[in-house]
Amino acid sequence: MARTFALIPAAGMGKRMGAGSNKQYLMLDGMPILARTVQTFQEADCIDAIYLVSPEQEIPFCRSEVVERYGFTKVRGIIPGGSERQHSVYNGLRAIDGIQADDVVLIHDGVRPFVSVRMLEDAVAAAREAGACVVAVPVKDTVKVVSEGIVAATPPRETLWLAQTPQGFRYSLIRAAHDEAAAEGFLGTDDASLMEWQGQPVRVVLGDYRNIKITTPEDMILAEAFLKERN
């Protein structure tokens, strides 16, 4: 039976947050954002092992204040990140111990703590069947394509979705995409874009509007409101 590995990049510097520490370690109702994210993967039966990606100098802190403090037994390793998110993911893909070609990798932002077990299960199923998937939600607003301050086009709203994570892949496919991107110097906007660049189909899995990426102080306000309502 193919296994499922979670790869969680948490190597961002969080400059837009304007906080004194990296955003993944900011406290959200008494618990680091990253720990809240990992907790869902720890509790999901569909996840066999978890790998985190962290700035090298923060690995001891991540291990003691997230993995050990909260007893995350599925975490198998903390891998040094790279200069860009794509490089961090690539480091992680190369470091997963014992992974096989048909195993599934779910790649998820460390600062999306409202991912649900249902989303993980749906992404795993889609990745097993289609080879690649992205969790996403339909846009709510009209989107304008702008060139030099002038509206150039208004794409049909029903064709536009907001990409989230997790993004799920058969390991052989995402590893080959990252290998080729590294060789060609291609930098994508997310992991699914590497598959698209290769001409590979990517299935869409319905996400949730609350599955936000905490990037700015306003996002923290939203996150605290979501937690308050949930509790």
From TrEMBL:
EC assignment: the record states 2.7.7.60
| Site features described as Transition state stabilizer, chain residue numbers | R16, K23
Q: Which GO terms describe its molecular function?
A: 2-C-methyl-D-erythritol 4-phosphate cytidylyltransferase activity
InterPro entries, per the entry: IspD (IPR001228), IspD/TarI (IPR034683), IspD/TarI_cytidylyltransf_bact (IPR050088), ISPD_synthase_CS (IPR018294)
Per the record, where is site Positions MEP for the nucleophilic attack? Answer: R157, K213
Listed A to Z, the keywords are: Isoprene biosynthesis, Nucleotidyltransferase, Transferase
Source taxon at top rank:
Bacteria
| UniProt catalytic activity | 2-C-methyl-D-erythritol 4-phosphate + CTP + H(+) = 4-CDP-2-C-methyl-D-erythritol + diphosphate
Give the metabolic or biological pathway.
Answer: Isoprenoid biosynthesis; isopentenyl diphosphate biosynthesis via DXP pathway; isopentenyl diphosphate from 1-deoxy-D-xylulose 5-phosphate: step 2/6
Q: What is an example of a Pfam family matching this protein?
A: IspD
What class does this enzyme belong to in the EC scheme?
Answer: transferase
Q: Which HAMAP family match?
A: IspD
Describe the function of this protein: Catalyzes the formation of 4-diphosphocytidyl-2-C-methyl-D-erythritol from CTP and 2-C-methyl-D-erythritol 4-phosphate (MEP).
Which family is this sequence assigned to?
Belongs to the IspD/TarI cytidylyltransferase family. IspD subfamily.
What is the name of this protein? 2-C-methyl-D-erythritol 4-phosphate cytidylyltransferase
